[in-house]
Amino acid sequence: MDGEGYMIGRRHFLIGAVVATTLGRIAGAAPAAGWPARLVAAAQAQIGVTVTYDPAYVRLAYPDGDVPRDRGVCTDVVIRAYRDAFGIDLQRLVHEDMRANFSRYPQSWGLKRPDPNIDHRRVPNLQAFFRRLGQALPPDTALAELAEGDLVTQMLPGNLPHIAVVTGLRGGSGAPLAVHNIGGGARLEDRLADFPITGRYRFPPRS
Predict the structure, then answer these.
(1) 82 and 65 within one domain
(2) Which of 53, 142, 149, 159 is the most buried (most CB within 10 A)?
């Protein structure tokens, strides 16, 4: 193996070791105290910072890659909240799990291998990841019973999947307010009753 090949192999080994440690910590310990409030605070901190909805494909750094913070899509709200609150890099975790379990993820985009630039930014992939390594809860739970820190997926008109972070605040409808980017940047809104809910997940960091 030449020097460059050795360094690439070494880098992949080290990243894999860190991911394995992270996933082990996620699976094997008690949830960190107060994690829902920390997740929601990190999501709300994006309001006024992410002001544009921009679904463009962008080549990202790896790991810890991100598009400019003034823009993004609904998944970026979740990705940034976990990264900012807990140092959890969903780009890396989703990519590594897809590398090991590609057939268990949606095959909707004609890809033959994982793409760390976009995979974690697609709602169906996050749903598969949270089902596999987090908690999938009944999606037909009454809106009033949704808990702070829940991740709720919805189907928008045109069969467009969407994801939002549930807060502990209540809107006029009685449902919790959620932080999401549905078209105008990160916002806190009472929109959970507006579209069909397709999934409900929890992904608690572990202490």
Answers:
(1) yes
(2) 149
Look up the domain containing 92 and give its range.
36-202
Q: What is the pLDDT of residues 54-100, one digit of tens each?
A: 999 999 999 999 999 999 999 999 999 999 999 999 999 999 999 99
In DSSP notation, 10-64 reads HHHHHHHHHHHHHHHHHHHSPBPTTHHHHHHHHHHTTTTT--EE--------SSS
DSSP strand pairing (71-72 vs 52-53): parallel
User: How many beta carbons lie within 10 A of that of residue 90, not counting itself?
Assistant: 23
How many Å apart are CA 89 and CA 21, to the nearest integer? 13
As a whole number of angstroms, the distance between CA 113 and CA 98 comes to: 8
Residue 207 located in a structural domain? no
User: What are the pLDDT digits (tens) for 97-114?
Assistant: 999 999 999 999 999 999
| Those residues with Cβ within 8 angstroms of residue 79's Cβ, 6 or more apart along the chain or in another chain | 66, 90, 91, 120, 121
